[in-house]
């Protein structure tokens, strides 16, 4: 799991002035709205003696700890009240918790979980169709008992569609099946591809006739570690663009927010059937991914046999290795080894300015010898 990316962590409507505890990247966070309606996301551990802030109360723009009533400001995490010291008491300098930058977009709350200065942060993915006339969006959410990297690599794998999604392929029933040579696009923050598929018509009564002569274009492009855009062009005119936000709860569980825009059958009555269809497709992926062995992507690709249709996955792993070399990969083994003895926090940008913190930043992996080998 990686620090220093924006992550979608909840749907906006779920966050009110009642505190909510959420777990991501193996750490707990408290979320709440302040008096201005601004969403705050803080490390959930009270630096006094370790209580869970999310079980306290929102007081104005602060979260009040349920144990001894210390109050921490949502915007900067700094403690503004220590009741036991009395009204004139001097608040210790280290009395602060990590507070993370947040943004609300596309009906989701995003938090930047890391300590990069603003100018160096990877972007939140752009969804140009979100406000465009002629497009209609629906939002779904899934929780998979799967490692986030396995889930992401599945999105970048054009060869699974034929076998995992019967409505999209022929399950190996055609002799002319082949994944064409992939043209990989890449940028600082992502890799992706678009491919042409032979694909049968959609089974739903109201969707019939959408696909142009069985020729369908589809592909996925990543934006950072957690955001992906999947374009499904059923015909030159009927398009669905899916934006998947994959946020690791921990190494074993993954939350996914799934936004799909469509430019056909945009009447609201189609939302139900479209979501139903997408739930089936997501479940087809989920059952395969949850059973992969090993559970995590192997440390070295010498322990797999990759072929040219795995090219985008290989390129994605190069990006991961690059982000790991910057010290952004959480050392989950070290965190787990100290689980009951030591609390950790994802470092927030305030740590760049001020080094005195009670809770240690999560350890990150030393750049190592991860082997990336070319497809055969
Ligand atoms: S543990 Fe939070 S105020 Fe004491
Ligand atoms: Fe799939």
CATH superfamily of the largest domain: Rieske [2Fe-2S] iron-sulphur domain
Bound molecules: FE2/S2 (inorganic) cluster, fe (ii) ion
For the biggest sheet, the summary is: 6 strands, antiparallel
> Stretches where pLDDT falls below 50 for ≥5 residues?
none
Q: How do the strands of the widest beta sheet line up side by side?
A: 12-19-18-17-16-15
CA-based shape? globular
Number of domains: 2
N-to-C series of helices and strands: EEEEEEEEEEEEHHEEEEEEEHHHEE
CATH architecture of the largest domain: 3-layer Sandwich
Features:
single chain, alpha+beta, Rieske Iron-sulfur Protein, Naphthalene 1,2-dioxygenase Alpha Subunit, Chain A, domain 1, six-stranded antiparallel beta sheet, four-stranded antiparallel beta sheet, 5 helices, binds FE2/S2 (inorganic) cluster, binds fe (ii) ion
Explain briefly what this protein structure is.
By secondary structure, the protein is α+β, with helices and mostly antiparallel strands. Helices cover 14% and strands 28% of the residues.
Write up this protein.
- Helices cover 14% and strands 28% of the residues.
- It is an alpha+beta fold and 376 residues long.
- The chain folds into 2 domains: 171 residues, 3-layer Sandwich (Rieske Iron-sulfur Protein), CATH 2.102.10.10; 170 residues, Naphthalene 1,2-dioxygenase Alpha Subunit, Chain A, domain 1, CATH 3.90.380.
- It has a 6-stranded antiparallel beta sheet, covered by helices on one side.
- β2 and β3 form a beta hairpin.
- The two termini are 28 Å apart.
- The mean pLDDT is 93.
- The site of FE2/S2 (inorganic) cluster (FES) has 9 residues, from loops.
């Amino acid at each position: 799991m990686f620090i220093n990316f924006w992550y979608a962590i909840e749907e906006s409507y779920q966050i009110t002035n009642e505190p909510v505890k959420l777990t991501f990247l193996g750490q707990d966070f408290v979320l709440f709205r302040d008096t201005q309606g601004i969403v705050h996301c803080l490390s959930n551990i009270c630096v006094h003696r370790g209580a869970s802030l999310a079980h306290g109360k929102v007081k104005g723009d602060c979260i009040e700890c349920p144990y001894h009533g210390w109050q921490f400001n949502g915007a900067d995490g700094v403690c503004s009240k220590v009741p036991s010291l009395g009204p004139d008491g001097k608040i210790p300098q280290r009395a602060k918790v990590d507070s993370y930058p947040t943004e609300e977009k596309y009906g989701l709350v995003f938090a930047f979980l890391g300590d990069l200065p603003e100018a160096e942060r990877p972007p939140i993915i752009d969804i140009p169709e979100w406000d465009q006339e002629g497009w209609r969006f629906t939002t779904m959410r899934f929780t998979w008992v799967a490692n986030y990297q396995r889930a992401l690599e599945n999105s970048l794998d054009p060869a699974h569609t034929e076998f995992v999604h019967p409505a999209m392929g022929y399950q190996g029933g055609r002799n002319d099946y082949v994944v064409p040579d992939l043209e990989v696009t890449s940028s600082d923050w992502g890799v992706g591809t678009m491919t042409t598929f032979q694909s049968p018509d959609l089974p739903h009564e109201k969707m019939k006739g959408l696909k142009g002569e069985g020729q369908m274009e589809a592909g996925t492009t990543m934006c950072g570690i957690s955001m992906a855009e999947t374009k499904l062009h059923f015909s030159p005119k009927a398009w669905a663009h899916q934006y998947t936000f994959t946020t690791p709860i921990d190494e074993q569980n993954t939350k996914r927010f799934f936004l799909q825009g469509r430019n056909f059958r945009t009447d609201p009555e189609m939302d139900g059937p479209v979501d139903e269809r997408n739930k089936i497709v997501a479940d087809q992926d989920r059952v395969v991914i949850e059973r992969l062995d090993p559970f995590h992507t192997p440390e070295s690709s010498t322990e797999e046999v990759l072929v040219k249709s795995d090219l985008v996955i290989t390129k994605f792993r190069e990006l991961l290795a690059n982000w790991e070399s910057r010290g952004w990969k959480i050392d989950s083994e070290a965190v787990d080894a100290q689980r009951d003895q030591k609390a950790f926090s994802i470092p927030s940008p305030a740590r760049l300015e001020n080094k005195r913190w009670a809770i240690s930043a999560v350890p990150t992996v030393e750049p190592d010898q991860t082997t990336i080998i070319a497809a055969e």
